[in-house]
Amino acid sequence: MNLTLKDEILKRFLSANGEPLSVQQLGEEFGISRTAIWKHMQTLQDEGYTFDTIKKKGYVLVATPDRVDPPRISNYLATKRLGQSIHYFEDCTSTQTIGHELARNGAVDGTVIIAESQSKGKGRMARHWESTKGKGIWMTVIIRPNVLPHQAPQFTLVVAVAVVNAIKSLYKHIHPEIKWPNDILINGKKCTGILTEMIAEIDQVQALLIGIGINVNQQSSDFSEELQNIATSLSIEENESLDRAILIATILNYLEKYTDLYVQHGFSPIKILWEEASGTIGKRIRATTLREVIEGLAIGITEDGILEIQLDNGEIKRVYSADIELS
Ligand code: BT5
Q: Residues 99-129: pLDDT tens digits?
């Protein structure tokens, strides 16, 4: 992982699990002077990390600030590629915009861009995505799978399954459901939006930019008026404040597993996982596409991830992309 020395020292404290570490010992491990170790620890303290002194033994890390620092994420990662390179920003316009730039400049498969806040967070069709500072997960994952451009939309479904399973594995009281194609809802309110973009030539994907926005620690009053009745956060649903770094790492762990599954075995195994997590299938819906509004029963997704809607006259329509309202 591309960590600075300061981040490596932090990672060492995080993985020490409460065992004291002496400045002398750290100096030897990292091959630098005690003064240099001290300086890095001082910077970490300025950033909000708190160390306690254990007499004659060294220091333990006792408190971490509420930030999604790369070393904290990496402490919980079990991946080979995803998150092995993380670009962290306090503020940015959009992690997608940065992702495009990095991908065009050769960023490696699995590169993650993460920000505490975005001033121009974007949804599909250039809609605005509200990204409250320090309260959510606003990240883009660059992946470079060997797939064709028409397969790109299926990755939205792969990502949705990864996010739902990560949430379910961590929080007991939350029952997330996927609303085709790119939303995750809890009790009918949106907590996650996914935006998949690509850089491609006609017959080859060069990079997929997977944008994931998750409301984590907002309270109702943190949402704009427009979102008050339609959005929720994991914290509202779980009724406690949650550690964003653990959730990010867990999502990346699931996402690597499911993208590998997709690349090796195609969409079929993902389809099964998706159907288990879907809140759309079996419901009456209204789908607004660029060309028409279709009302009917959502009966399933095809082997390509396309939604099938049965109209009242029995006709079955296939929808490639739409905004869905559940009735
Ligand atoms: C999405 O679009 O749901 C995709 C959102 C992707 C956001 C991530 S954050 C990291 C990465 N960087 C970015 O710049 N973007 C990605 P769509 O299906 O078009 O939904 C957009 C609609 O969701 C808006 O028109 C609002 O109604 C609603 N919305 C906006 N912000 C929201 C929020 N924080 N929580 C819930 N709903 C929101």
A: 999 999 999 999 999 999 999 999 999 999 9
